[in-house]
Amino acid sequence: MPRPDNRSADQLRPLTFEANIAPYASGSVLIGFGSTRVICAATVEAKVPSWMKQQGVKGGWLTAEYSMLPYSTLDRKPRDITKGRIDGRTIEIQRLIGRSLRAVLDLQKLGEHTLWIDCDVLQADGGTRTAAITGAYLAARLAIQKLLDAKKIAENPLTDTVAAVSVGLVGGQELLDLAYLEDRDAEVDANVVMTGRGQFVEVQSSGEEATFSHAQLQGLLALAQKGLQELNVRQAEFLARHLP
């Protein structure tokens, strides 16, 4: 069965990165996965959370926030503040972004700094969390370069790269990087987060009124790894253009 955009089963959507989209942030990137667009911004604060001082925890910290702007979907999405609470999906995704970045960050080398990662979805067409993670790494790397250039830290605290991609079973077919129409109809969908060295950070996989076999899971993971290797190459090309 052909895909809505005529991609092959193992093909990523067109990928774009635009640097410095938010000039007041320490580092920022507008990432595009097909029609999905996410602004990822990293801001450095020269302090750490109070709980770290209270517990005697040394080093720095990284935390993430995620939101979908009201006009990012076909039907207007109310802001969380109007509901008086953050919805469960938002909390889950921002925690995932934070875990993914901290997995490749040496907090001791960050010193007494907090790295805030803000991911705001401008347009949602599937894969917003995977786009946010992939772009957030780039924004964090740009922000860290400013700390290095200002000699506020002695060495790069990032130990590896990190990226994420979605995979799924749609009509029994294994597909890479699902757009919304595919994600909506998927029997099984998964989000895979991996480092540049090929280490898994997180695998989120579930059946939608369906089950999946060990062989299908292995097939989806192999497909994700192929896509993540491509994303890693594209991240490296972007950083080669924007770092000294």
Describe the structure using short key phrases.
alpha+beta, 244 residues, globular, Ribosomal Protein S5, domain 2, five-stranded mixed β-sheet, single chain
Strand content: 25-35%
Choose one word for the global shape: globular
Placed side by side, the strands forming the largest sheet appear as 1-2-3-5-4
| String of helices and strands | EEEHEHHHEHEEHEEH
Radius of gyration: 18 Å
The top-level CATH class is Alpha Beta
CATH architecture: 2-Layer Sandwich
As for the number of domains, it is: 1
Instruction: Report the average pLDDT across residues.
Output: 95
What would you give as the CATH superfamily? GHMP Kinase, N-terminal domain
Strand count, sense and closure of the main sheet?
5 strands, mixed
Distance between the termini: 46 Å
Low-pLDDT windows of residues: none
- The count of DSSP E runs of length 2 or more, i.e. the number of strands, is 9
Tally of helical runs: 7
Structural class estimated from helices and strands: alpha+beta
For this structure, the CATH topology is: Ribosomal Protein S5, domain 2
Helix content: 25-40%
Descriptive account of the structure:
The chain is an alpha+beta fold and 244 residues long. The chain has a single domain, classed as GHMP Kinase, N-terminal domain (Ribosomal Protein S5, domain 2, 2-Layer Sandwich). The protein has helices at residues 50-54, 80-83, 88-102, 107-110, 128-149, 180-185, 214-242, and strands at 15-19, 27-33, 36-45, 61-68, 114-123, 162-170, 173-176, 188-195, 200-207. α3 (88-102) packs across α5 (128-149) and α5 (128-149) runs parallel beside α7. The longest helix has 29 residues, at 214-242. The mean pLDDT is 95.
